Amino acid sequence: MERANVIKEELIEKDTRFLAIYVEAKNSCLILLSEKEDKLGTMAIAVPKPKDLLGPVSSSVLLGDKNAISARMFAEYVASMKGKIAVVSVYLEKLTEMQAQAYFMRLIEKVLHAEKSTSEKEKEETRI
Q1: Which domains, ranges and CATH numbers included, belong to the chain?
Q2: Cβ atoms of residues 28 and 84 within 8 Å
Q3: Residues near 72 by Cβ (< 8 Å), separated by ≥ 6?
Q4: pTM score, two decimals?
């Protein structure tokens, strides 16, 4: 039985630290995005449509309202990219959602790319 994959990434821009913790299980992904230190923030969930149905990903805010737009947007993005349930938390201290969105998107791309590299390595190891 496979266990969840956990990846941590960080980015420093304009003297501010942006952090991501990515956890992927068989049917879902969880990403915690935060400024300065790892903290839980506004949380949203997105569920992809079944492959035989057309239409956008459905999403909802689970917790908080300060960064609801970013949390939903990133949850929908990850759910559509991975085809899995996605839960995303966004915590910001000083910056606004608009200021941090580009940095968080880069972090998401980094963790998704790192996850792809990790899963490819695992597949190679199981073949050997």
Answers
A1: 5-127 (3.30.230.100)
A2: yes
A3: 44, 46, 59, 60, 61
A4: 0.84
Tallying the residues shown for the chain, one arrives at: 128
* The 3-state secondary structure of the chain, one letter per residue: CCCCEEEEEEEEECCEEEEEEEEECCCEEEEEEEECCCCCCEEEEEECCCCCCCCCCEEEEEECCCCHHHHHHHHHHHHHHHCCEEEEEEECCCCCHHHHHHHHHHHHHHHHHHHHHHHHHHHHHHHC
Q: CA Rg, the chain, in Å?
A: 15
Sheet containing strand 58-63, edge to edge, reads 5-13, 16-24, 28-35, 85-91, 42-47, 58-63
Q: How far are the Cα atoms of 3, 12, 62 from residue 107, in angstroms, in the given order?
A: 23, 11, 22
Q: pLDDT digit string (tens) for 63-95?
A: 999 999 999 999 999 999 999 999 999 999 999
Q: What is the mean pLDDT of the chain?
A: 88
128's CB contacts (< 8 A; 6+ apart) are none
Tens digit of each residue's pLDDT (9 = 90 or more) over 15-24: 999 999 999 9
